[in-house]
Amino acid sequence: MEFRFEIEGGNFSKAGTASSEVKKILKQLNVDPKIIKRTVVSLYEAEVNVVAHAYEGEMNVEIIPDKVSVTIQDKGPGIPDIDQAMQEGYSTATPKVREMGFGAGMGLPNIKKNSDQLNISSKVNVGTIVEIVNYLK
Amino acid sequence: MVKVADIVNKLNARIVCGKCDLDRKLEFGFASDLMSDVLTIDTENLLLITGMNNLQTIRTSEMLDISHIIFVRDKKASKEMQELACEHGIALLECGYSMFRACAALNELGLKPVY
Ligand SMILES: Nc1ncnc2c1ncn2[C@@H]1O[C@H](COP(=O)(O)OP(=O)(O)O)[C@@H](O)[C@H]1O
Ligand SMILES: [Mg+2]
Fold first, then answer.
1. Helix, strand or coil for residue B69?
2. Which atom of ligand 1 approaches the CA of A110 most closely?
3. Residue ranges of the Histidine kinase/HSP90-like ATPase domain (chain A) (predicted)?
4. Domains, chain A, ranges and CATH?
C-alpha cells in the first residue's frame, strides 16, 4: 500500500495531520500499538521539522506486510551538518517555533530512538530527505 | 492508581471535553509545557499536566496515546482543540492552579512520576 500526504511549511495548526492519517491506517491494519506509537512519534517529529524548518514537503508512506517505510522530503534550507543536527539539544528553531512547544533540539534523536532504520540526506538551500523504516513484527 | 473523579475534585478542575469517564484510573503524571519533552515519554495510563494550550498539545497526545490532559494556570482549550481531542477520545480538564500546585496536589493523591 502506498500513501502520500502534503506538509505545509510554517503552518502549525496543520502540523501532525499526515502522521495522524498514518496512525489511522496502521490501527486499521491491527499493527501492535507499541510499534504504532514508535512509528507515529518518529513521523510526527519529522513532520513538525518540515513545518518548523522548511517551506513545503511531503510524506510518502509504503506499507508492506512486515514493514512500514516512510520518506519525508522537503524543500527548504537543508541541514549543513547532519551529525551536529543529530546531537541532543542542537536547534536552530525560531522563537515562534519555541512558543509552540518545540525547538528543544530533541526531535532527530527521538526519531533515531523510535525507528529501526533512519537515513537523513540534505542539500543546503535545496531540502532534506528523512527516511524512516520500522518493522511491524 | 488515581480516579479521574478524584483528580477533578482535588484540583477543582472543569471537564471541558465530552466523554470523560470519571471512574477511569490513571497511574502516572508528566508535567511540561514543552512538547519536545512530552514526545520522549512512553508511558501508559498517563495524565499530561501542561500550560501549553495549542493544537499541537492535542496532536502530541494523540501520537502518544495520552488519554487525559489537564491544563493549568487557567489556560483554556480552544474550540478547535476540543474538537480534535474529542475526535481522538482525549479528555480535557482545566484548572486555575499553577503547575507546581497542581503537581503537588496530584502527588498527594498518589499519581506517580515517570522518572
Ligand atoms: N527538515 C529540516 N530542514 C532543515 N533543517 C532541519 C530539518 N530538520 C531538522 N533540521 C535542523 O536540525 C536541527 C535539529 O532538529 P531537531 O532535533 O528536530 O530539533 P528542533 O526541531 O527542536 O530544532 C533543527 O534545529 C534544524 O536546524
Ligand atoms: Mg524537531
1. strand
2. 17
3. 16-132
4. 2-135 (3.30.565.10)
How far apart are the C-alpha atoms of A60 and A72, rounded to whole Å?
Answer: 6
With cell 491494519, the residue in question is A29
Give CA torsion, residues B85, A59, A30, B30, to 10 deg: -40
Q: Which atom of ligand 1 is nearest to the CA of A88?
A: 17
pLDDT in tens, chain B (115 residues): 999 999 999 999 999 986 778 889 999 999 999 999 999 999 999 999 999 999 999 999 999 999 999 999 999 999 999 999 999 999 999 999 999 999 999 999 999 999 9
Quick check: CB of A86 below 6 Å from ligand 1? no
Given CB atoms, is A100 within the 8 Å cutoff of chain B? yes
Q: Residue A93 has which C-alpha cell?
A: 528553531
CA distance A78 to A91: 13
Instruction: Report the DSSP beta bridge partners of residue B25.
Output: B3
Q: Which domains does chain B have, with CATH numbers?
A: 2-113 (3.40.1390.20)
CA A19 from chain centre, in angstroms, equals 8
Neighbours of A133 (CB within 10 A): 17
Nearest-CB residue to B63 (from A41, A100, A107) = A41
Interface confidence (ipTM) of the complex: 0.95
